[in-house]
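User: Structure tokens for both sequences below?

Assistant:
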Amino acid sequence: MTRISVFGGTGYTGTHLVSEAARRGHEVTSFSRSLPEQQVDGVRYEQGSLLDEATRRAALEAADVVVVAVAPRGDMAGSVRDGIRALATEAEQAGVRLGVVGGAGSLHVAEGGPRLFDTPDFPAEYRPESLEMAGALDDLRATGRLDWFYLCPPAAYGGFAPGEARGTYRVGDDLLLTDEQGNSFIGGADFAQALVDEIETPAHRRARFTVAY
């Protein structure tokens, strides 16, 4: 059993993550700025923000692994990178592994090619948050002894396209994964499976990876 704290545990990714982790018998604590009306059995819910030092301390004290699944949008735009940077420093001191869920925007579309957020068809409204999360990845790569991983979803991922759980996925590194039809997709349940698999059996230490069908 692993003790797992999740920032953003009530969002799309976070809800799937805490559900999957609890299902597998891990001790899971969700941290979010508001508490959900519907709670997952076996998950402890705490109210607090990634930007609050006391909340970060509580999350680290309760965990072997802390995962950040917070998007830099709305009133969190421009602040998530700072929160991850602070948490990274504190996690390194505490000896806690840190996982960050990024976006697909910083993935390269081809070997040696541009990143997804630099392609002409990338939606302009998503570019700021993609740049912020790319910056957070740069910060992690610049850390010293911190044990971290950074997981990017495929291009079509989110509550708008939940999909059906398949129980399988492919793993890539810095390149956007697509299928034979050019689709880049994974459902929330299988993305959470990949996250918990990485927590249980670390295969990407101090590295970014991506998953898709």
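Moving on to the next sequence.
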Amino acid sequence: MKTFTLLLSALLGSLFLQGQTVLHYDFTNSLTEMNGAGPELTVLGNSGIFVEDELGEIGEARKWVYRFEKNSGFQFDNAAAGNFLGEDYSIEIYFVFDELTSWKRVVDWKNRKSDYGAFVFNGRLNFYNIAMSDEAPIAVNEYTYYGITRDAETKEVKVYTDAEIEINFTDNSGDALLDEDNVLNFFHDDLMVPNEASPGAVAMIKIYNYTLDSTAIANNYDDLAGNLFFIGEQKKTNTTIQAFPNPASQRLNLDLSNFTMQQNISIRLTDLFGRTILNQEVSNLTTSFQLDISSIEEGFYLLSVEGDDRKASSKVFVKQ
């Protein structure tokens, strides 16, 4: 029984880490994944170039980007990534198009064999042939924060620009899922109705193997500079957090002595799939805090604590 329990704990721990994985491409003179956890992107069409560009939304800061020609782009090989991208995922892109007349391809799930997928149509968000946004939030020659999420349980697909939901539909036919080729294409159009593409540039792509909720999308957009330049990570110092008892039931005691000088503290529990289960803001802290977990289901969770300039995390097990 003890051996089984240890194996189960190891397996759940492995699943937990996998559930938290994010692949991050930042296009600083390279198409490689910045943490070495994912495959290098493969060029489609003509090779692009790496240039420094001005990103107007974040104080006209400059960053390295990958500039691609019309009907060119790149491919994410999901098989090489260990089938990282499944039915439950999120994709964040920060990109700019030079042309916006008619349809311009953003993401293709079917390796150019279908005209379905994510486009921009005259500045409006379009998932052909299912949904179109009411407004045109994308402007020519302006970088846009663009997000796509899919929930495996509900099959709900949401497409965001600048943290606002512009498209929302139920993907009953699996149009937002990879086919047998198991690759995801960006900016390069399909062969069914070809050349619906624009030249442009991309500054960031992040691929998650879980669904970001609207709050997480909004937080990422609010911290756009941190996502693009890792400013938030650099500003906040990693520290430690003591949580006991562990396993815990009903109440989890937190030793916050490393956070006593912080004005505001954010305490969050996320599950194996990266979903936020509990999120609590605390101010005027003492050295300890008791977290009510009486309504939390049994299982492994990631405890994250963030202050003004420091952060900490710990894995906890809730046993009810």
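User: Anything stand out in the second?

Assistant: The longest helix spans residues 2-19.
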